[in-house]
Amino acid sequence: SDLSSGINAEWPLRPGWSDGIAYCFHLFHIATLFDLLGRVIRGATTHADQLLVCVPFAAIIAYIYAIIYFGAFRKMFDNTKMEYCDTLGRCLVTVLKNSLRPSAGGHNYSWKDRKTFDDLWMRLLIDASFWILFTVIGLNVVTSLILDGFRQLKAERERALKDMTTLCTICGLSKDSLTTRGVSWSNHVEREHNIWSYVTFFYYLQEHDGRFSAVENEVLKKFQKADPSFLPAGRCISIDTKIDLEKK
């Protein structure tokens, strides 16, 4: 057809125009390469379920105004300016189109054949009510949900960074808890519970081909089952030694 041949001319290296256009969606893969873009997407979609609820709510508002326009003001639309309301479906499409573009509070229709002062009150009522329902309430709700998602993501990131510097990854004891018991935090995370020592040990268990000791066998079984019970939760050598000395 003329349409396909015309578009194929823009994609001379592709067998079909649709194949060429589809390749542009691969650009979204860039988001997986940059952590910042990934956080932006996660922040914007944190409340995706609530944002999806806003979509039918906005559609209902647009449909109500489409019925009002179609029932009482269909003659005011100017087809030469892409304003169609000869059917309810076309009226709904026109309302949706004008709802998504910037306007001075309302839809900014031409209001053809309605130029008297009395028509101003009707237009004021329609435009003001639409501006309050769709722009002020609807769009602000969507913006608030997106911003709240970013705030929640930021709080989670700050909490994770704080845990990384104040909580032992192996035993879960806090820096303050260890300090009050007379245990050096730096010595604890660098010597007693060095995370890289554990990583090296797990790597050894997975790659070693020889025989394991009974302890290594037990740790390997639990590690493969994602069972962390073999880790010294809430315990460390320094504290256990102090407790044993106090008992004696």
Low-confidence parts: 1-14
User: What radius of gyration results from the CA coordinates?
Assistant: 32 Å
Helix content: 55-70%
What is the tally of beta strands?
Answer: 0
Please tell me what the overall shape is: elongated
Average pLDDT, all residues: 79
Alpha plus pi helix count: 11
Instruction: Describe the main β-sheet briefly.
Output: none
Concise summary:
By secondary structure, this protein is an all-alpha fold. The chain has helices spanning 2-8, 17-22, 35-44, 48-72, 88-99, 117-166, 175-180, 185-192, 195-207, 214-224, 237-247.
Task: Describe it.
Helices cover 64% and strands 0% of the residues. It has 248 residues and is an all-alpha fold.
Name some characteristics of this structure:
disordered N terminus, 248 residues
What is the fold's blueprint, element by element?
Blueprint: H1 2-8, H2 17-22, H3 35-44, H4 48-72, H5 88-99, H6 117-166, H7 175-180, H8 185-192, H9 195-207, H10 214-224, H11 237-247
Helix pairs in contact: 3-6, 4-5, 4-6
